[in-house]
Amino acid sequence: MTAVIYARYSSDNQREESIEGQIRECTAFAGKNGITILRHYIDRAFSAKTDNRPEFQNMIKDSGKKLFDAILVWKLDRFARNRYDSARYKATLKKNGVKVVSATENISDGAEGILLESMLEGMAEYYSADLSEKVIRGMTENALKCKYNGGGLTLGYMIDSEQYFQADPITAPFVLEAFKLYDEGSTMTEIKDILNERGVRNAKGQLMTFGSVQHLLSNRRYIGEYQYRDIIIPDGIPALVPKDLFDRVQQKLAKNKKAPARHKAEDDYLLTTKLFCGYCGAYLCGESGTSRTGVVHHYYKCSSVKKKRKECHKKPVKKLWIENLVVDTTMKMLMDDSTIEAIVSMLMDLQDRENVNLPLYEQQLREAENAIQNILNAIQQGILTKSTKSRLEELEAAKEDLEIKIANEKISKPKISEEFMTFWLHRFRKLDVSQKSHRKMLIDTFINSIYLYDDKMLLTFNFKDGTKTITFDDVKDAQNKYGNGSDLDWRTAPTENKSKTCFLLKKPGTKFRASSHF
pTM for the whole thing? Predict the structure, then answer.
């Protein structure tokens, strides 16, 4: 029998040793019962009251590949503490020929085992619900006393030895400064940059983001309001921000929320982080301006020109036109069957080259099976010696080991078929490019980088998820070797797109390879 081990603990308060202990007992159980362990699935700090556990879902999905016969758990409550989830997923596993086995609970396969298993699952669900009620009761008592109830600590506060909130003398002044800056007209982006420059970090110890600044400016805890579930206690903790200042900031937040938000520019400009200046290699950033008639115009502008870091004569380009050009060109590429076939061929080749272990194990397995068959033929002809028997045992052990390795490879690196890749690429042909979400999906999936000149552009496609952005030096080297690409033949956005663009494909660690013109 082959099996996998599933281990889990519920909260960050539990330690890693909990996982080690579960795996140790499951491994010992497997050894006593002649079960071969293929791999471990581990969920850390995930409750079994829900099925929203990443490794649990991966395990259920992998069971459909029929590579293992059983799932070993330390106790059944590791698998689920919800009878509905337990029954549903066990039914799925049963269809896949996989059963759940407890290493520490002796449950028979007979009718009495079904009754015992249901009782254990019911007790686990009862224990979970009872524990939840006790925890909430205890945290409610803490809340009525305005004590710290765990979780991420709010910037600007510290917790004293009795679990009460106190103002942090180091970070509290930054909180007050952030409110004053916003009240005086600074943007959230500017506040974020100021806080990051001064070494302020968010609750997770990471750099401040737009979202963390937004949360900071709307957090009522800074006016001393304590809240837990439906319990709200004014002046329950030390206030860091005056009430009148907080109210003014909330009014500005509400007003700016209704106005066109500047921070949404990055989301609206679909080519951000992919569009580069062909002359200096800097990003082209989204810009907007209002004409005398009140019409707002959007365009991309070289960041070197914008920030005056160095001289660059790249002209701004209209946002909608360049985005339409990129989207239309990409769609034309996807409509070409020969291009799809070439992409699939490269992906299949890449997949085969990346998984070097599986073909090797399969070849070694075939050789072992042939050698076993040869020895069996010799035995049938009456040739049987001590060395023959010893060699047969070695080959059978090697065969079993290779079968386990192959199963592990197929679980960890499933091979995608050529038909599925073709089907997946063909789905992009049905995108509605008039929808922003579809345009964004198309660009994020296929576009690696775009180098834009005043008279031409160089467009490079991904063919592997995670390919690094092609650098300016790479582009210059490629131009020297393959040429500059075709002219765009425009100065301002033309009414008809008559452009042709040279596309380059780049493999990690290799030089450019030119593809056909479109």
Answer: 0.40
